Amino acid sequence: MSESETTPADAGPARSDDRDLDRVIAEFSQTIDRKPDAVDTLYERALAYHHKRAFPQAIADYDRVIALDSGHADALFKRSIVHRQLGAFDKATADFDRAVQLLWRRQVFPPAKEA
């Protein structure tokens, strides 16, 4: 049986990107199950959810990243984008403003370099 016989004509081909994202999300989830405070992994999974347009899951992961690291400007900025895409403009603006403030402070007061 050919693929066209088993797939509805209007379904379109499955995107390899979605399968790749599902695989990556599963791998990140396994790591997070072992280490729930893995900020970098949570952030990467949030990005994967965001790219997949799974916005509630992306926001949940961005929320966790920010709860663990309140200075994570990238998570704030990306969460602002998701809020904007969902039409939550006040939340988007608040996150964006906070991210800009954090980045500005880093420019004005860079972290001390270790000797």
Report on this structure:
Keywords: Repeat, TPR repeat. This is Tetratricopeptide repeat protein. InterPro entries: TPR-like_helical_dom_sf, TPR_rpt, Ycf3. It comes from Labrys neptuniae. It is built from 6 helices and no strands. Helix 2 packs antiparallel against helix 3 and helix 3 packs antiparallel against helix 4. The chain has one domain: Serine Threonine Protein Phosphatase 5, Tetratricopeptide repeat (Alpha Horseshoe). The N terminus is likely disordered. The protein has 115 residues and is mainly α.
Offer a concise description of the structure.
It contains six helices and no strands. With 115 residues, it is mainly α.
Features:
115 residues; disordered N terminus; Serine Threonine Protein Phosphatase 5, Tetratricopeptide repeat; mainly alpha; Ycf3; TPR repeat
Query: Please, what is the oligomeric state?
Result: single chain
Poorly predicted sequence stretches spanning 5 or more consecutive residues: 1-14
Task: Tell me the β content.
Answer: under 5%
User: What is the CATH topology descriptor?
Assistant: Serine Threonine Protein Phosphatase 5, Tetratricopeptide repeat
Taken from the alpha-carbon principal axes, the silhouette is globular
Given the helix and strand composition, which structural class is it? Answer: mainly alpha
Report Rg. Answer: 18 Å
- Name of the CATH first level: Mainly Alpha
Number of strands: 0
> What is the end-to-end distance?
67 Å
Write the topology of this structure.
Elements: H1 3-6, H2 16-34, H3 39-52, H4 55-68, H5 73-85, H6 89-108
Helix pairs in contact: 2-3, 3-4, 4-5, 5-6
